[in-house]
């Protein structure tokens, strides 16, 4: 008996906005990105998460905020 299950992860960009501040590496503008992440197991959605990411528009680095 062979059991095949497919696990998949999708990322969808919901929106992009200008964020305050500048990139610490190159001084470029910072963009705020809202991303929906969806995990699927055998074509059944398991989890939805909406995260906010920060990217530099000049050097395309992902910026991480530390509180």
UniProtKB/TrEMBL annotation:
Protein name as annotated: Methionyl-tRNA synthetase
Organism listed in the record: Arabidopsis suecica
